[in-house]
Model the fold of this input.
Amino acid sequence: MSAKPLRSLLYVPGDKPRAIEKARTLGADAVILDLEDAVAPEHKGAARANVQAALAESWPCPVLVRVNGLGTEWEHADREMALLAGVDGLVLPKVEEGRSVTELHLRVPLWAMIETPRGVLNAPAIAAAPGVAGLLVGANDLARALRTQPQPERLPLLHALSAVVLAARAAGKLPIDAVYNDVRDPAGFVRECEQGRTLGFAGKTVIHPDQVAAANSAFGVSDEQAQAARDLLAAWDAARQEGKSVATWRGALVEQMHVDEAHEQLALWEAGRR
Done:
């Protein structure tokens, strides 16, 4: 996978060649060519051919393929096509056990979708499975399985969302937040991005071109934040040069954890500018 951050991962239906072509130009940190939920059964074969052709071209970002799930009639053909075409990673839907990922023995990064209550409960084992690069929340299926009602702040899902973040971070993997369905509500999308960032997600899956820039902004580092990180590091370095064991910046004590965070912020800022 690329060293760039994964602030935005844009789903593109595999049966829409024009949308696939346009996706190259939208500035998403990664594109997910979808062979699963976005494609009707009668279009699966054509979608697979479209995705194969797209993978033969060069892309400005990593390209993942969401294959059809285990036990479906399309799973083997999807995986074989993607692997032979040189995909950057596979998105596996409705993963519920770490063992089901481990037994695949695939040699590309795997992104496990957590979309069921069982998947949430087993998220630590899934995140720790060999080859797993991160966990993607599938909130629509999860909400349906939990019988929750829509709520702007996602209160019924907060426990599950945090559980996915905890599992991914504990395993050193990336947690990616779920899609926001209402593409006519940009303000709501921004609020949900901010909530996801606050919960600890590294990025967000998106379903519309207009959502890409907002996700990149919400999960990225602004120029002002980068400068603040530089100022903190300068204060730390000055204190160390004076032989002090602690530093202060903006009236607060600076410890090693703050220094590490500042370095991470600058690395994310620099990566986002490439």
